[in-house]
Amino acid sequence: ETLTILDRVSLQVHPGELVAIIGASGSGKSTFMHILGGLDEPDQEFNAQENVAMPLWMRGVSQQDGLALARDALEKVGGERQRVAIARSLVADPACILADEPTGNLDSANAEKVMELMFTMTRERGMSLVLVTHDREIAARCDTIYRLVRGKLERVELR
Questions:
Q1: Residue 63: pLDDT above 90?
Q2: pLDDT tens for each residue of 142-156
């Protein structure tokens, strides 16, 4: 028996657009995000600040400046792994951020702080954001919402 996780899924994200992907656990949301961006985990041999500075060093930023920018980014976000991933993505100033359950392991106060920062920073910088979430309130703050059902993306309205 063949199990189809994603069935000819296509997604177009416009510059500056905030997109939420919702769906039941096990529906393939994380698989889709990994395919979208080839996501990798922060390197375990580095501390949080070094993990955040890594993409800056790869772009030629000095070690000292990279660490300073990383420290500033970490201070702006409120759970260690989520903080590292979010700060690392924001400090590199990409065109698009892919976020798979960015508030999944955070308490409600830090979750709100993190999402407010992500929404503010992406809007201010004109970045696109594609995020997977189970939180309907977070999804409702996005421009476009899709539900992943039986391997297909369906556009939905939560408002």
A1: no
A2: 999 999 988 889 999
Query: Is the predicted pLDDT of residue 61 greater than 80, yes or no?
Result: yes
Only one residue has tokens 């989520």, namely: 82
Residue 61, amino acid = V
The CATH fold of domain 18-156: Rossmann fold (3.40.50)
Given a contact cutoff of 8 angstroms between Cβ atoms, the answer to whether 37 and 151 are in contact is no
Burial readout 106-120 (b: 16 or more C-beta within 10 A, e: otherwise): beeebbebbbebbbe
Domain boundaries, the chain: 18-156
Q: Long-range CB contacts (< 8 A, 24+ apart) of 72-77?
A: 74/48, 74/49, 76/117, 77/113, 77/114, 77/117
What is the chain's length?
159
How many whole angstroms separate alpha carbon 99 and alpha carbon 130? 6
Tell me the pTM: 0.69
